[in-house]
């Protein structure tokens, strides 16, 4: 395929059904098995500023500290801005981890991918030559973040058929590797629909929704594990905070602890 994600050296890796913790403060306690399976793709959905990028980077940063490697593919935010914000806000020095070859931040042009998919589908009908548009990864990662589906879908400029084709292909491609994948989806602030084409949440192994709801005259953050194929999980909304110098902070309320206690 001309628009895949390629790993240097290695091609197909059979997913090991090993569990990896998410390593976000208290989050693993919300999962019966305490982590997610390698090879799973998780959709992280939420409105603007809900904390999607931070949530994923928190998981990745703490996983790198435990000896893993990760890649962040961004279709939108300028890579330098993302690095700067993560360092200034949460004290995560992604630049240092990049230099140590444990992390890679890759900016990919979604319009080039969209054009490439279009050309590929046209060629199948006997038309054009296909422009090569592969995302080359510098190493085989344990975690991959894709930020975001929304930026990608905009690039397809209303061609839902082509977008769906690419999404299916992307999920199939990610499934072949044994990384834990985070696909960020931008939604309205209180979503009833979690993705642009509606198929992404069905293709995902897990869906995590981040809310930033207006309560009275202020916003309160909470998260919901809407789906997790690998195990049972907390079903209620769990409040969280974004804390300077720390990242995601999840305090387990009495209700949440009771739900967890119910599994045993
Ligand atoms: N130092 C900080 N302490 C606490 N909260 C912060 C800090 N810095 C930023 N934030 C909060 O984090 C929010 C942005 O988080 P993040 O970028 O992860 O959200 P997002 O869902 O990815 O947003 P977008 O839709 O723009 O991609 C800001 O709007 C702000 O409320
Ligand atoms: Mg973001």
UniProtKB/TrEMBL annotation:
Residue intervals of the KaiC domain: 18-264
Gene Ontology molecular function terms on file: ATP binding
PROSITE patterns (alphabetical): KAIC
InterPro entries, A to Z: KaiC-like_dom (IPR014774), KaiC_dom (IPR010624), P-loop_NTPase (IPR027417)
Keyword Nucleotide-binding: yes
Keywords assigned by UniProt, alphabetized: ATP-binding, Nucleotide-binding
Record keyword Nucleotide-binding present: yes
Transmembrane segments: none
Tree of life domain: Archaea
Descriptive protein name: KaiC domain-containing protein
């Amino acid at each position: 395929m001309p628009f895949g994600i390629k790993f240097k050296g290695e091609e197909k890796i059979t997913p090991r059904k090993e569990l990896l913790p998410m390593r976000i403060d208290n989050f693993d306690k919300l999962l019966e098995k305490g982590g997610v399976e390698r090879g799973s793709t998780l959709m992280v959905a939420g409105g603007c500023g809900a904390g999607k990028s931070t949530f994923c980077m928190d998981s990745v940063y703490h996983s790198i500290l435990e000896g893993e490697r990760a890649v962040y593919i961004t279709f939108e935010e300028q890579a330098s801005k993302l690095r700067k914000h993560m360092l200034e806000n949460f004290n995560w020095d992604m630049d240092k981890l990049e230099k140590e070859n444990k992390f890679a931040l890759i900016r990919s042009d979604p319009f080039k991918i969209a054009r490439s998919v279009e050309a590929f589908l046209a060629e199948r009908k006997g038309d054009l030559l296909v422009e090569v548009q592969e995302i080359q990864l510098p190493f085989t990662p344990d975690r991959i973040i894709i930020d975001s589906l929304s930026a990608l879908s905009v690039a397809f400029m209303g061609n839902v058929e082509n977008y769906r084709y690419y999404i299916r292909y992307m999920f199939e491609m990610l499934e072949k590797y044994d990384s834990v994948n985070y696909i960020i989806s931008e939604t309205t602030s209180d979503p009833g629909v979690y993705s642009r084409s509606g198929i992404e949440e069905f293709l995902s192994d897990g869906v995590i929704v981040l809310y930033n709801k207006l309560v009275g005259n202020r916003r309160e953050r909470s998260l919901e594990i809407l789906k997790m194929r690998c195990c049972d999980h907390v079903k209620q909304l769990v409040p969280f905070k974004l804390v300077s110098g720390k990242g995601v902070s999840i305090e387990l309320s009495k209700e949440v602890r009771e739900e967890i206690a119910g599994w045993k």
